[in-house]
Amino acid sequence: MQKRQRELSALTLPSSVEEVSEGHRARSVGVGRAHAKVILLGEHAVVYGAPALALPVPQLTVTANAGWSSHLFEGQGDLSYTMTGSPSRAMVTQSSDGLRRLFTEFKARMGVAGRPHLDVLLDSAIPLGRGLGSSAASSRAIVFALADLFGLELTEDTAFDLVQTAENMTHGRASGVDARAVGAAAPLLFRAGEVQQLKIGWDGLFIVADSGVAGSTNEAVELLREGFQHRAGAQERFVDRASDLTRAAQQALAEGKPQDLGPQLTDYHRLLRAAGLSTDRIDALVEAAIEAGGLGAKITGGGLGGCMIALARPEQARDVTRRLHEAGAVQTWVVPLKGLDNHAQ
């Protein structure tokens, strides 16, 4: 197998489909998939060395298809890129530029020579700019589609490196949580660049609610950094508090104590709100979820918009979901903890 992989990696690929013989291409179309994620606790602090807990959201998927093209793309390099739905022109341009950089990294990492011309189609159900990992999931799906097309085996570590490279291009200094979580089959603990599967001691569920307003990770990161610079000891206090809450939440998950986990979520929300990273609409959703019987709730992701998550017992899910919509949520998704470790990639 390793010998065959080396042989495939060393192929000099032709520039168009007419020059590609059947012996040179293992697939006519390559397919790759990934899914959304939410951060339970630890966002922002994880960049400063604190732990973070992440939850896969398998209901929200992205699929990439990569195929050989017979066209030369004047002024566009080697790729034709299409997104389903109704993305803005600016969004498509930004995504296309990112994909080309990702393709360059893929070819260098995987030993693909030549200038093959490809058509890439991205079909995503993950709302953009909501803290659900849409950019990382798209990159992962594309990377696996390219590997499938070229008949190359892609390890998780190599996939992570490629996705992380794309994330750093998009967000600056990315923590790596998204790059791991969008391919995870179970809830994860992320700490100092290492990941491990979380122990889950009960069958509760989380409700994810979309505020309808896109957040801005880059703006939120800069806002937090400026706050740290202007207040002595602010960074240490923030990271220490975030670490304490995240470690306590990890223990509550493992021991099956939702009555402890709920307040830890809400306390983390207060931490992020105090740092200026929440919004009035997110705060209203958090309050609505708790008033409806939710055990706790918080903003999730970069902040300044996006989504929130609420912890609920199964019998509370309907009331919490209803109240979230009444409070302004444009979409909601229920993510049960039970069965996530059986989610197939």
TrEMBL record:
Q: What is its EC number?
A: 2.7.1.36
Answer whether the UniProt record assigns the keyword Cell inner membrane to this protein.
no
Q: Where is the GHMP kinase C-terminal domain?
A: 250-328
Task: Tell me which SUPFAM superfamilies the record gives.
Answer: GHMP Kinase, C-terminal domain, Ribosomal protein S5 domain 2-like
Q: Name one GO molecular function term.
A: mevalonate kinase activity
Q: In which pathway does it act?
A: Isoprenoid biosynthesis; isopentenyl diphosphate biosynthesis via mevalonate pathway; isopentenyl diphosphate from (R)-mevalonate: step 1/3
Concerning Gene3D superfamilies, the annotation shows: 3.30.230.10, GHMP kinase, C-terminal domain
Q: What's any one GO cellular component for it?
A: cytosol
Entry-linked PANTHER family: MEVALONATE KINASE (PTHR43290:SF2)
Q: Which family does the record claim for this protein?
A: Belongs to the GHMP kinase family. Mevalonate kinase subfamily.
Name of this protein: mevalonate kinase
Source species:
Streptomyces sp. CNH189
